[in-house]
Structure formats: structure tokens, C-alpha cells
Amino acid sequence: MSGNDKTEQLREQIVKACRARTPLVINAGNSKSFYGRQVEGEALPLDGHQGILSYQASELVITARSGTRLDELEAALDQHNQQLAFEPPLHTDQATLGGAVACGLSGPARAFRGAARDFVLGAKVINGKGELLQFGGQVMKNVAGYDVSRLMAGAQGTLGVLIEISLKVLPKSEAETTLAFEVDAAQGHQWLRNWLHEGQPISASCHYQGTLSLRLSSTENSIKQAHSRMGGEIVGNELWHQLRHQTHPCFQQDNLWRLSLPPSTNIHNEDDQLIEWGGALRWKASNNDLFEQARRLHGHATRYALRAASRQQVFQPLQPAMLAIHKRIKQAFDPHSILNPCRLYEEL
To answer: Nearest Cα to 135, choosing from 123, 151, 146?
Structure first.
């Protein structure tokens, strides 16, 4: 558990860029380079900054440098039958811990176990002035206030360059089984809500083209009891691998939108729509702009094409008051806007 520490080298490059007002493009495995607006500038590579620094299996905590590959991290966890419970996608085998946290993407279990940010315990970050900052720690604290380390999840490096990250991990379940039901989306959603209310051990859900698929994660006995109560056909678990790593045919569409909506939002029986997270996440192909539709439904939309970064608006436009808050936070962490400028929004 050592690796290669490039902290000082990275800090020096950021200091020089700050003085020269040179924009920096943060990258490591480049597996998520498609996610966000296109950024131009000098490369700040983190791929060599790697290594697991500590792993306390009994405490369910692992700390690693941001350039550590996710597959290496998960291999270490697997030796102790543990996992990254938020199931970050590995679009390639070069995907890194820093990229997973910076993009904040979570897999099929997100609605049932928590989002990427929920598992971030602490982080070391270099801000836009070249200062090395540390937030949080290696324990879950029950205190008032918002941990700044979690602010880095989903910020895509626009607030600071992630150097080290401590994550809470979880034990793997004794068994997992997938049940499939032939049912329309609206009726399937109601069944799912009822089963969740009953406390059935559901850890992932998906409705696509007339089939509701549910993953059960628990003990063998609990899963047998749940199957007896719920019914359905036992099928393979391959679907969840496809959804987590976004290799499912749904993700191969160039005009794909990612809609994050309240789970209670009415579900229309559309065969081309893939629904996850108990109704809270919907993937839909459309040539139309879906930002306004998402706003009316009290959610947000994202252009999502696994090809390349776009010059278009990618994320849900911010309301003026929210944009002002984002600008103040950006100013505090990166006053000269050199870290992935405009990656999230043109104004940032």
C-alpha cells in the first residue's frame, strides 16, 4: 500500500498556472471525459498519482490517492468481501477513484444505499491558488454542518484537485438474486413502492421495454422468503453490471438524456425509456431539449452521450439565485478560474 505521490509536483504546476492565469484541464484515466462541457487548457495529469494509503477493513474505511485505478481499489476490497456500495461506473479499466468522486456518478444501488458523496469521509484537495487543504477525516461524524469534502463530489475538479480520498465501504451481501416481472412501467412502479414499504431486501430496480427487474441483496434465507412473497422469475444478474458500467444498449444512443426526478413523478408507459432508482432516474432518447420539462417536474436533466465532451449546455441551467451561490463558492476555492473552467457551466 504505497504507490506514487505526485502531490508536490501537482501543487507546483497549479501555482504556476495561477500566476500565469493558465486554465488547467484535470485528467487521469479519461474514462469520463465525455461528461460535461469541453474544456481547453494545459493538461494536469493525475494518472501517476496513485496508491492505497490505508485500508481498515474492520472499520470499513479505505484511503487512496486520487489517481488510483478503481479496479485495483475494488480488488483490495474484494479480498475482505467488501465493496464500494454506491457502485461507480467503470467506463474503461483506466477509471480512477478521483474521477469517480469528482463526477459523482452512482450506480444501480444509489437509491437504496446512498450516493457517491454519502460515502466520502474526507479528502485532501489542492485549490486554485495551489494550497493543499484537508477536509473531513476517516470516521463518520454525527455533527451539524456540511462537510466540504462532500462538496467535491460532482464538482468535476472545478473547486479543487482531489489528492487523497477516504471512503466508507460496506460488506457485500451473502447472496444476490434478480427477479423479473412482465408488467408496464406504471403498475411496476406501484408494486415496487409496495414491496419497499414491506421492507423487502431490494437493492436495485430497472424497468425497460415491459420488464421490471429487481435485485435482492441479503441472506439466502431472506431472499427465498422475499421471492415467495413477491413472485417473479429468477434470472441472471448481468443486467446490473450493464447498468452500472453503462454498457447496456440504452447507453449507446447519441441523443440520450439523464433525467433525475422525484420518484413519485407520474410514469408514462414508454418502451424507449429506461427507469432506475425506484423511478428517480430515467434515461430517455430525445432530439428535443428536455431542460424545461425537467424543471417543471422539479427535477433536472443532463445531456448524456458516451462519446465526447460537448460545447452545448450539458447540465440543467441554474436559477439566478443558485448560480450566484455557485459563483461565490467557485470564487472562494478558485478565484482565477483556472481549474476545469466552464466544465459544468459557461459562467463557471
So the answer is: 123
Range of the domain at 232: 175-303
Average pLDDT of the chain is: 93
Q: Are 169 and 142 in contact (CB under 8 A)?
A: no
Q: What is the distance between the alpha carbons of residues 223 and 176, in angstroms, rounded to a whole number?
A: 8
**Residue length of the chain:** 348
**Which CATH number goes with the domain that contains 191?**
3.30.70
Q: Is the pLDDT of residue 128 over 70?
A: yes
Give residue 227's pLDDT band: very low, low, confident or very high (50, 70, 90).
very high
pLDDT on residue 148: 86
Looking at the fold, whether 25 and 146 belong to one and the same domain comes out as yes
Q: How far apart are CA 312 and CA 319, in angstroms?
A: 18
The structural domain count of the chain equals 2
The secondary element (H helix, E strand) that includes residue 83 is strand 82-83
The mean-pLDDT minimum among 163-167, 271-275, 293-297 falls in 271-275
Strands 202-208 and 256-260: unpaired
Count helices and strands (H / E) in the chain: 10, 17
When pLDDT is averaged across residues 308-335 and rounded to a whole number, the result is 90
Contact indicator for 212, 206 with CB cutoff of 8 Å: yes
